[in-house]
Amino acid sequence: MEKNVFEQMAKKYDTRERIELAKVISTEVKKKLQETKSKTLVDYGSGTGLVSLALTDLVDSVLLVDSSEQMLEVAKAKIEQSELNHAQVLHADFTKEQPTIKADIVLTSLVLLHIPETKTILQNLYNVLNENGQLIIVDFDKNEQVSHPLIHNGFSHEVLKQVLSDVGFKSTEIKTFYHGENIFAKKDASMFIAESMK
Any residues with CB less than 8 A from the CB of 154 and at least 6 apart, and which? Predict the structure, then answer.
């Protein structure tokens, strides 16, 4: 089994920069969570919960899913500390196994860039969603300055829209919402938010 780099990073993952970026992301995601008090949310690739734990008051329940047990240990400690009774964690890797859980909303934030098979993971996330479910993706716009063997260098809106459509999503809206310095592989970059309906 290949070593999960996030296992080593977990304890030191919540840096000031990551916390700041997570605040920017969760603020943007909140705009997509209108009238969702009765809905269930899955955060796929949740890491330590920096984004989704800021959303717990907008939904009925939150399930943090990650392939790194260490990341989830950190998340679990935060959940217990904040007494968030409606937040739980699940150790799983949907690139290697078919998900059996169901949810009304799936969020994946700065995760797609780490997954080689974009279409496969999007298909699996589509399968998690209940009918008329909502997929929210936050990731980096295509960036020619970024070159790294283990990650995508961001995503073109048109290409991503097409893949989401191929997977079965009825509609997708994508917009760039943030530009920052040194936020993507130590390069200046912009982030988009995509909302797709099943």
Answer: 113, 139, 140, 141, 142, 143, 146, 184, 189
